[in-house]
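Data deposition worksheet. Section B asks for the primary sequence of the deposited chain exactly as it was used as input, without tags or linkers unless they were present during the calculation. Section C holds the resulting structure in token form. Section D is free text for depositor observations; keep each observation to a single sentence. Incomplete worksheets are returned to the depositor.
Section A, Depositor: J.P.
Section B:
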Amino acid sequence: MSQLLLAVLCFICYLLIYYLVGVATSKILKFDNNLLHELVYGMFVYGILFFVYVLPLKFKLVPVSTIGVIWALFISILCLLIIIILRKYIKESLSRFFKGIRKWKLCFIPVAIFTIGFILFILIFARLPFGNNQVWFLGWPANGVLHNELMTYDTSSGVALERFPNDRYLSTFLDHSAVVCKLTGLHVMVEVRTVLSAIFTLMQVIIVWELARYFGKSDQKKSLFAFFMYWSIRNLLVGSQILPNYFSIFRNYEGKGMVMIVPLPLLFLLLWKMYDHPEDTSYMWKACITLWGAMTYSLSMMFSAPFVLVAFAPFVLARKDKRLIRNLALMLFVSGIFVVVYYLGRKGIIDLTIHR
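Section C:
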């Protein structure tokens, strides 16, 4: 089977799994039954589930092939159960989505055309031809496929490591790429730089649209104007590598790039909604899911999130609402756990020695 066909199938499977996991999350936590939201939060919850599953197996040096078979069986059964148990909820979700398309057809067509064009542009033209970070984000999955172990060989020299890298071992989306490639035969560069790049591009467009729609107060013309104004400003800044668009165009397959273009804007939107509706606890849980899920992609979120949350603190104090204080404390706690774990790893309190 060609790599291109495998990539398309992998892309579709990712979206289906994210959606089904998102549906279950939405039902359990009583979120709004919205297909786009379920895709986004399903991606983060799926990342959390894999994180919890794979981390102890990584330390025990369980073969990637074994990890993959067990995970594939688990996800298959889980998705089947979700379809059977929540079929009415799924039907409602799909019905609302297609009704929304008909209602928002003024916006749907241009936004859909933009999304498809943006994904194709990035996949065809926005290939960064060199860069040290590619060694990390392609090397870890490639080593996993080659050696059948996760993060145990140096990505530059190929020498066996003595310890797991403290700044990388929690980024389990790289482990997931290794599992997918080992099971399917999909090339690592295709999975990481094509499939994941397309996924992350789609997710950031969804979030930008949600931001624009909230900014436009659900007015179609205002929302559409805000959406394209956002991209116009971002695209003008593409030449600088210190600005977000450098990562959204050229390096969005990297963990830090994904963090910059997906969870951080989403967190901003959730804080905005949380401030407007402090009585709605769903925004608090969505923010916690976003924070934890983003950590599984890159610990850059560990350094970025506290600044965003501290910047939100003056608004919390100005509002003088105890519910907002509670929300902020919980989000800082979730973020702080990873700071503590990272610190313990640096000090050697968490043993990262690879025991062969």
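Section D:
The longest helix spans residues 188-215.
Residues 49 and 223 are 34 Å apart (CA to CA).
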